[in-house]
């Protein structure tokens, strides 16, 4: 059938679109579904399991059947509902889940072997032979499962996110929502009105009622004009509030560009996080169908949807239509369609006392018992008083009553409550705090009821906020009580679909009942009912009613399911809010980043930091070439490394020294001004937390350094100690990690190099001994701090300057030190140097080790109290006999692998034989073999012993000699030179 | 005076600037910045004549501005003094307090609207989870922005200043630039 008269489409403009490659036209205001119906297309897809021909069932986001793929290439989006896809010029849609074509789908053979796919089939069938399940059945079923196809390409569209705050969030812009928003906004309160549709009005757009003495659209236009003029009200069209979260926070997706011809122009969708003091849920209701034999043919729709397509979109799938109903609302559809010139074949009403609303045939006390039409409905079989007859029609509207859309009220486990009067579940207690249902979402079935319900809800929530809102003047509206009967399905032997999207039939529910899967939760999982992307919006209550009937219990006794977000599917792209690829998270760059980048350094992520790994030189073909060179150059001459990433915390105040003395497990009371001390921090439970240095710049001024990875946690730990443990101490803290660039200058020529940049300051061994610090200037007056500390085991310093000069200082040092062999080195060489020296780092301080295990047990001072000291002495920790040792490969070419388990030489590789693990490993250019640090049972007493490192994941087994963790300069002479 | 050439927080040769619709973004590398924290029994000073503001506020005077950062803690920002030992100068102005150099700890980005308050409000909605109505002129807040911690100052109805970690400045700039560009694309497409 072609277009009907009227409707809310703009016939002055024509939009061209394709479906399965064929070109059609529609108008602004159309959805893909309405435009296809207007073009005479009823067949829009294939069902999930049985590949049955399917058309459109609904006119909204509850649609289970008319799912299509939109767009092509990387922008292809599967499982999109044609019913809410706003038509635009150039829209490209394809049917899905069929091969080779929609009209002839080879997998339609599934329909003939449907007994194999009954409820719980995957628990019962395909069980023999056993070996076939994993290799054949499961892969085949997985391949056949699903509906649309992913593009398998990165999503090229842009998404973003945002945050909104309001006094009142009104969800749904139908009769109730509009009045609620208006009532609240007139008081000056900040109101957000969100609706998933592109047009305000909700169900009013689909009805032929008048409001007052004018069409509903006139009333809507007036309200929309007023709403738009209110600066305190924000209208959000095309916005689905998909979830209710804690503290009045709602998740919403605004489809910003989906309806635009060029989706790449700006943002496609925005994820909004809305914080609302109060919320009115005016989300309307969804009509339910009545299952009967073969009730899934294209052309069989919900009666309200049929009415919506006719009234709003001026479309009807056929020229001759029948209605199957158990209530008065079905007759409205017949009446409206008849008024539009559609021939009504008849209204089949389950009620014996049914009365027509107009001039059309009525079959009271009758039911539909079958249908015909391979790719679209041709006729229905009706049974009345035991007699059957065939009614020719191209479409059938089915009306089984309405279910309030109460999902959001259930997101906090609020259980819906059954109303015998309304034959529907209504929002119950225990929903999100501050959320009030209104209109059809609260069971108000008439327009008049919805209008006044919206106003009352607004008054109530505003009163809760201390505002007295005036009752708005409401138009006279349809307010006829709907009469309906509790009729849930037509019994029969043929399959009658309950859940269209997951292909669940009345038979499946009966089978679940027979197999004792009767609780709602079991029914759901056994049959997969309600578990598709529509979350059973058109099926859950019907299924429940059928199960109730089978068990002989009432619906509330049978139970109900509650709902989880999202209300409708949300793309992962928008959930990411645009944070993808390189911008997935913030990156922290060191002051020498650009300098290192210019020298071709590859970077590694260290937490959020990007650090240079090494600095390749021409001719070096492997990273080891570069790293070995950097290590040897540092040990022979001087190496320079950016260590800015180490955390730096400025500690000031009269009690600054006392503060750090309580913080570190070792003593700090004797730390003199101008000196630095190594410190170990323990957690409250006695486990080692972090290590670093503490420099005393002045009587009341210290600088604590941390490892890179623990900079944040240690700073937080310090603030906790300052604010909560010892608020009596006069201490002030602030992070200075970013403020100062810090370069390590290490190697026998380190002092000679630094003497070339410091401004007239004596940094000789006498003036600047090991573990000293001082403030000075470099390079002609630049303020700097010099710390004589060593991580590499060489004569070494760390020089700090304001961060903006870090890159220039690095360049200056490398240039000035050319004759000294000055070599920049990265994190790889840094790691090798510290392993060779036996310094613990993050791998050793992994949250499971103690001071004792690290060989620092005696550092935990008995002369004072400090965080973690007492618990570090508890029996359980003290009994751990694993200690840090050095491990050296017996063979030059043998690989030492971090994470490998340590076993006695010759021991069987079993968990029970485990004696420790390797925490860090590298190739030592200094020794020419693989080395490592590890924790070994009685390690200190096993020096010289040969053990085995087992790496069963890679089938490796390496013999290692237990040695001192100090592979170089065990006496520490170099650092003191 | 050192002959070393300083680099900018956002890594370019010149301070970054970006225009999208009515929004103008600009890196401001010129602020000398230092933190001031009161010690025990220390009365609040008035460094450079700038009164130290109350909770979640900042004050602006001829020589710069002071923003509240925590109980008894503030940050002082002085335009054009990034190359000086500004913390040293603050120590003189605020005797008895704990002063820490912060000039290079922060990337400072100024945001200006050429179309009044609306674009600023729209941008704030895209960036931070706070009610723009609570961030009126003179207010400062420390909040999360694109997964990092920042200070947002509402200089006036049409201007914001954002302070983010210097090391993550490029990421911060990208977040601001992207949000501004997307807003402009949606508004003006």
Quickly list its features.
heterodimer; A: 977 residues; alpha+beta; Ubiquitin-like (UB roll); FAD/NAD(P)-binding domain; 6 domains; 7-stranded mixed sheet; 6-stranded mixed sheet; 50 strands; B: 189 residues; Gyrase A, domain 2; 5-stranded antiparallel sheet; 11 strands; 21% helix; globular; GcvT/YgfZ_C (chain A); N-methylglutamate dehydrogenase subunit C (chain A)
Describe how the helices and strands are arranged.
The complex is a heterodimer of chains A (977) and B (189).
Chain A: E1 15-19, E2 22-26, H1 32-38, E3 45-46, E4 53-54, E5 67-70, E6 77-81, E7 91-94, H2 121-124, H3 130-144, E8 158-171, H4 175-185, E9 191-194, E10 210-211, E11 214-215, H5 216-229, E12 233-236, E13 239-245, E14 249-255, E15 267-281, E16 285-287, E17 300-302, H6 303-311, E18 320-325, H7 328-339, E19 343-349, E20 362-364, E21 366-372, E22 379-384, E23 387-392, E24 395-399, E25 402-404, E26 417-419, E27 424-426, E28 435-437, H8 447-464, E29 497-499, E30 504-505, H9 506-514, H10 520-527, H11 540-551, H12 555-558, H13 572-575, E31 588-589, H14 593-598, E32 603-606, E33 609-612, H15 623-636, E34 638-642, E35 648-652, H16 656-663, E36 676-682, E37 688-698, E38 701-705, H17 711-725, E39 732-735, E40 740-746, H18 750-755, E41 773-778, E42 782-787, E43 796-802, H19 806-816, E44 822-824, H20 827-837, H21 869-872, H22 875-878, E45 882-889, E46 901-904, E47 916-924, E48 929-937, E49 946-951, E50 956-963, H23 973-976
Parallel strand pairs in A: 1-7, 8-9, 8-15, 9-12, 15-28, 17-24, 18-19, 18-24, 19-20, 31-33, 34-44
Antiparallel strand pairs in A: 1-2, 3-4, 5-6, 5-7, 10-11, 13-14, 14-15, 16-25, 21-22, 22-23, 26-27, 29-30, 32-33, 34-40, 35-38, 35-39, 36-37, 37-38, 40-43, 41-42, 42-43, 45-48, 45-50, 46-49, 47-48, 49-50
Helix pairs in contact in A: 4-5, 4-8, 6-7, 9-10, 9-11, 15-20
Chain B: E1 17-20, E2 23-27, E3 32-37, E4 58-61, E5 64-70, E6 73-78, H1 86-93, E7 98-101, E8 106-113, H2 117-127, E9 140-145, E10 148-156, E11 159-165, H3 169-188
Antiparallel strand pairs in B: 1-2, 2-8, 3-6, 3-7, 4-5, 5-6, 8-11, 9-10, 10-11
């Amino acid at each position: 059938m072609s277009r009907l008269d009227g409707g809310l489409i703009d016939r002055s403009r024509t939009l061209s679109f394709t479906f399965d490659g064929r070109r059609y036209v529609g108008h602004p205001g159309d959805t893909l579904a309405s435009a296809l119906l207007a073009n005479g297309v009823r067949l829009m897809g294939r069902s999930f399991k049985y590949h049955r021909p399917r058309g459109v069932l609904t006119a909204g986001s509850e649609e289970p059947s008319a799912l299509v793929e939109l767009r092509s290439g990387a922008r292809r989006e599967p499982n999109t509902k044609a019913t809410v896809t706003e038509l635009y010029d150039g829209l490209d849609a394809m049917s899905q889940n069929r091969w080779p074509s929609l009209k002839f789908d080879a997998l339609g053979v599934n329909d003939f072997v449907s007994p194999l796919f009954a409820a719980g089939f995957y628990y019962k069938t395909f069980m023999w032979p056993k070996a076939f399940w994993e290799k054949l059945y499961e892969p085949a079923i997985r391949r056949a499962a699903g509906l649309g196809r992913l593009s398998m390409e990165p999503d090229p569209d842009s998404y973003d996110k945002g945050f909104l705050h309001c006094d009142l969030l009104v969800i749904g812009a139908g009769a109730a929502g509009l009045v609620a928003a208006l009532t609240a906004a007139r008081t000056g309160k900040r109101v957000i009105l969100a609706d998933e549709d592109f047009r305000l009005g909700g169900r009013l757009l689909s009805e032929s009622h008048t409001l007052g003495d004018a069409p509903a659209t006139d009333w809507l236009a007036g309200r929309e004009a007023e709403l738009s003029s209110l600066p305190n009200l924000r209208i959000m069209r095309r916005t689905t509030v998909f979830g209710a979260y804690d503290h009045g926070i709602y998740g919403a997706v605004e489809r910003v560009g989906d309806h635009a011809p060029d989706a790449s122009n700006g943002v496609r969708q925005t994820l909004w996080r809305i914080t609302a003091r109060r919320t009115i849920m005016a989300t309307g209701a969804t009509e339910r169908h009545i299952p009967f034999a073969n009730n899934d043919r294209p052309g069989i729709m919900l009666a309200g949807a049929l009415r919506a397509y006719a009234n709003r979109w001026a479309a009807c799938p056929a020229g001759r239509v029948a209605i199957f109903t158990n209530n008065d609302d079905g007759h409205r559809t017949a009446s409206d369609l008849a008024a539009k010139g559609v021939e009504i074949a008849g209204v089949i009403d389950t009620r014996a006392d049914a009365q027509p609303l107009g001039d059309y045939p009525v079959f009271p006390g009758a039911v539909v018992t079958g249908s015909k039409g391979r790719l679209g409905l041709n006729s229905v079989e009706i049974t009345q008083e035991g007699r059957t007859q065939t009614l020719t029609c191209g479409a059938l509207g089915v009306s089984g009553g309405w279910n309030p859309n109460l999902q959001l009220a259930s997101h906090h486990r609020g259980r819906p409550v059954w109303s015998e009067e309304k034959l529907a579940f209504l929002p119950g207690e225990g929903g999100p705090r501050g959320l009030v249902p209104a209109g059809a979402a609260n069971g108000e079935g008439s327009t008049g009821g919805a209008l006044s319900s919206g106003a009352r809800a607004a008054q109530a929530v505003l009163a809760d906020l201390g505002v007295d809102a005036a009752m708005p003047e409401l138009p006279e509206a349809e307010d006829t009580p709907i009469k309906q009967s509790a009729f849930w399905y037509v019994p029969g032997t043929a399959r009658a679909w309950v859940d269209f999207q997951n292909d669940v039939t009345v038979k499946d529910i009966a089978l679940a009942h027979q197999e004792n899967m009767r609780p709602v939760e079991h029914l759901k999982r056994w049959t997969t009912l309600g578990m598709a992307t529509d979350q059973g919006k058109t099926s859950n209550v019907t299924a429940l009613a059928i199960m109730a009937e089978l068990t002989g219990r009432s619906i509330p006794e049978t139970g109900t399911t509650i709902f989880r977000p999202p209300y409708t599917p949300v793309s992962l792209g928008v959930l990411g809010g645009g944070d993808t690829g390189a911008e997935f998270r913030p990156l922290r760059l060191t002051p020498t980043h650009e300098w290192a980048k210019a020298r071709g350094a590859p970077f590694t992520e260290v937490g959020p930091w990007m650090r240079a790994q090494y600095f390749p030189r021409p001719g070096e073909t492997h990273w080891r070439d570069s790293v070995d060179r950097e290590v040897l150059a540092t040990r022979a001459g001087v190496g320079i490394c950016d260590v800015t990433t180490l955390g730096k915390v400025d500690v000031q105040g009269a009690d600054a020294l006392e503060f750090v003395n309580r913080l570190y497990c070792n003593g700090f009371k004797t730390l003199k001004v101008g000196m630095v001390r190594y410190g170990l921090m323990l957690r409250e439970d006695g486990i080692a937390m972090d290590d670093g240095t503490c420099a005393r710049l002045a009587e009341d001024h210290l600088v604590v350094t941390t490892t890179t990875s623990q900079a944040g946690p240690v700073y937080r730990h310090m603030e906790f100690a300052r604010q909560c443990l010892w608020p009596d101490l006069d201490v002030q803290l602030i992070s200075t990690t970013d403020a100062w660039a810090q370069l390590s200058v290490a190697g026998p020529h380190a002092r000679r190099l630094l003497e070339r940049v410091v401004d007239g300051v004596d940094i000789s061994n006498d003036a600047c001994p090991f573990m000293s610090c001082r403030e000075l200037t470099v390079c002609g007056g630049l303020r700097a701090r010099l710390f004589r500390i060593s991580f590499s085991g060489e004569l070494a310093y760390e020089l700090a300057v304001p961060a903006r000069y870090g890159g220039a200082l690095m360049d200056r040092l490398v240039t000035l030190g050319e004759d000294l062999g000055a070599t920049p080195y990265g994190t790889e060489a840094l790691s090798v140097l510290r392993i060779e020296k036996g310094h613990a780092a993050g791998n050793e301080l992994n949250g499971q080790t103690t001071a004792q295990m690290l060989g620092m047990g005696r550092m935990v001072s008995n002369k004072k109290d400090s965080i973690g000291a007492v618990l570090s002495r508890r029996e359980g920790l003290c009994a751990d006999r694993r200690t840090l040792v050095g491990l050296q490969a017996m063979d030059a070419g043998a690989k030492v692998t971090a994470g490998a388990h340590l076993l006695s030489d010759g021991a069987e590789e079993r968990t029970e034989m485990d004696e420790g693990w390797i925490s860090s490993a590298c190739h030592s250019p200094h020794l020419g073999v693989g080395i490592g640090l590890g924790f070994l049972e009685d390690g200190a007493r096993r020096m010289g012993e040969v053990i085995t490192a087992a790496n069963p994941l890679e089938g490796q087994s390496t013999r290692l000699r237990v040695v001192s963790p100090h592979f170089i300069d065990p006496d520490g002479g170099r650092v003191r030179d | 005076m050192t002959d070393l050439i300083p680099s900018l927080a956002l890594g370019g040769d010149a301070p970054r600037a970006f225009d999208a619709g009515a929004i103008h973004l600009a890196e401001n590398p010129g602020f000398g910045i230092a933190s001031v924290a009161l010690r025990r029994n220390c009365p609040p000073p008035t460094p450079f004549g700038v009164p130290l503001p109350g909770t979640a506020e900042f004050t602006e005077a001829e020589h710069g501005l002071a923003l509240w950062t925590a109980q008894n803690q503030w940050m002082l920002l002085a335009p054009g003094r990034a190359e000086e030992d500004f913390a040293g100068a603050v120590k003189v102005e605020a005797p008895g307090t704990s002063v820490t150099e912060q000039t290079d700890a922060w990337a400072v980005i100024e945001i200006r609207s050429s179309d009044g308050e609306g674009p600023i409000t729209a941008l704030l909605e895209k960036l931070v989870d706070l009610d723009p109505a609570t961030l009126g002129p003179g207010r400062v807040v420390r909040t999360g922005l694109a997964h990092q911690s920042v200070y947002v100052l509402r200089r006036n109805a049409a201007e914001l200043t954002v302070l983010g970690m210097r090391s993550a400045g490029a990421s911060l700039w990208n977040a601001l630039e992207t949000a501004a560009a997307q807003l402009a694309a949606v508004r003006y497409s």
